[in-house]
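Issue: copy button drops trailing tokens. Both records pasted manually instead:
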Amino acid sequence: MKRIFSISLLIFSCLLIACEEDVEGGLNAPLLEVRGVQADRFTFAITIEEDGVKGRFYYLVQTTDKAKPSAQEIKGSQYATSFDLNGADFRTASMSSLNSKTNYTVYATVALGDQLSQVASLQVTTQ
């Protein structure tokens, strides 16, 4: 009897965790693409699916040795950059004042009201 209860409790816990992950991933992640890389900067393109175009875009750039942040951590970070999408499904963004020959990862999310997209990532190495 204890084993059945323990297994049921474990399954229920896993279902709760899956539901919590779905809250963050309700919108599709933005698509990120490198457009230009130099020694101290890079530019990337952002494509947003239709559902997120009236939302706000958040991105955070950090060296690849750091842990991947959640969508909520990106949105709440003092180091994140953000802008309103204003109905645009395509934008570009730049990151400057970087170290040369360094591996960076861009992490991005879209917020539409209280809903956050899945986290997108893009790896870039400066020249």
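Record 2 (pasted manually too):
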Amino acid sequence: MQVPSASQAFLPHVQVAGSPVAGRGAESEGKAKAAVTDRLQLDQAQLRQVERLRQRDREVRAHEMAHLAAAGSYALGGPSFEYQVGPDGQRYAIGGHINIDTSPVPSDPEATLRKAETIRRAALAPGDPSPQDRSVAAAAAAMAMKAQIEIQQRQDGGDNPLRRNAGQEADISAYGHVRVTDAEASLELDLYG
């Protein structure tokens, strides 16, 4: 019977040199030391740049995931990112987008209205919507208004509410407004930059 040494008996997490587990630990330790050494080779300005890139990467990914979560089934795949390589050789997301189906639902203004409302919510889902996000939200609001007009036309038996309401304007939140410009039933969409 072999009696374990004091370090083996009281410290079971200590590995004995030459064991297969010890070899893996040394390899992992070597990789960790190499990463620290590589990091130490970056000057202070490069370290600040890496930290800014990491922060931007987190922000971009959270922003696009908010769009994706709110878009639901109208999202056409996952997020796409634009990357920048940092001084540490890593790729960081600095921009991104989600493709969303923005087409109206054929012959179904009620479904188009629901879809437009979902698209608008998806566009504005992040806490800091970009100018492009606001533009998509405004276009979705215009799509919703058109669907509402179609719904109203069906309820009125085909009467054209645009012709009836020529000269009136409708608020579409803080992104602009829609104005019925003439009796030919055209819409004018003004977006705020």
